[in-house]
Amino acid sequence: MAGEGSLVEYARGTLLERIKKSRTRAWLVAPFLSGAVADEIIAAAEASDAGDLRLLTALTERSVRSRVLDAGGLRRLSEAGFEVRSLQGLHAKVSVVDRWGLVGSGNLTDSGLGGKVGRRANIELGVVLSRSQVSEAATLVDHWWRSAEEKTALDIAKYEALPPYPQPKGDLDEKGRSIGVLGTGRLREIVEEDPPPERSYWLDPNYHDYSEEGWWRDRGWVSDRRDVGIRKGDLVVIYLAARNGGPAKCAAVGRALGPAEKRPDFLRKERDAEAAERWPWVTEIEVIGDVPADDGVGLDVIGKTGQSLQGGPIAISRGDFETLAQALIE
């Protein structure tokens, strides 16, 4: 079994064995959970002597409908004796079992933990903590735990009936992802080019609906509350705001095909009356690079926050644009 400081690619067997042999505690932290892994954890915990069983996750309608968090598995863990709490914004993956600990990139899913014959696994990496690090990790986890919201089996059951989001349009790759994602090849070319002096660069806030993942490619336009001066050839970084569970990340870059035009009738037809009233200025764009929404880049890389965009699009420097584009590429 991997010792302190060891790197672990596939943690399934090690984690389950540690839970099975635990005497005091099994604290698990992950935003995503699959039903199969939940059942394996339950079986391991039932064979243990541990009395302090905790699972900290991020229970949201989006995660359940996206099928990255299995509400049924979460409920079964609760019914099996695990105390379940939800902390919004959680992205950490941590396991603290007695005086053993693991921090890594893998969620509590088949693909995240790997090590199961016949199942495709992600490329993950974790590290086994030293005793002092286990103590530090436990302190952090307990701090998160105290600020999290308790979820009973009855609370969780309400999420089980939620329908999944519609599948992405078009063909899927071998991992079930839409092959419509453009990628970032053209962005790399733009970062490396000698830019035309007349080009301007913009951050444009937009709201995101996970049932319309990648809408910027299909729609071909963005709308704003006013004309800020975007012109043909300018590059527009699309920021998906936190409203309605959005990721608060930049996910795409578009090239403006012309200046903004006030087109409320167009928006009533394409979207709804609210959009026509609140964001009547339409800018047509050609998307030149993107990543999945949740893989986007936060504004902190250029020292900004979502509050800076509350008034609508803002101009950014070429340097800020290159920083955002390079982060998307990487």
Quick take:
The protein is an alpha+beta fold and 330 residues long. Helix content is 31%, strand content 22%. It contains twelve helices and 15 strands.
Report on the architecture of this protein.
The chain has 330 residues and is α+β, with helices and mostly antiparallel strands. The protein folds into two domains: 7-160, Endonuclease Chain A (Endonuclease, Chain A); 185-329, ph1033 like domains (ph1033 like fold, Roll). The chain has helices at residues 12-20, 35-46, 61-65, 71-79, 110-113, 131-147, 153-160, 185-192, 215-219, 264-270, 273-278, 318-329; strands at residues 7-8, 25-29, 52-57, 83-86, 94-97, 100-104, 126-128, 149-151, 201-206, 221-224, 235-240, 249-256, 261-262, 281-290, 314-316. The protein has an eight-stranded mixed beta sheet with strand order 1-7-6-5-2-3-4-8, sandwiched between helices. The model is unreliable at 166-181 (pLDDT under 50).
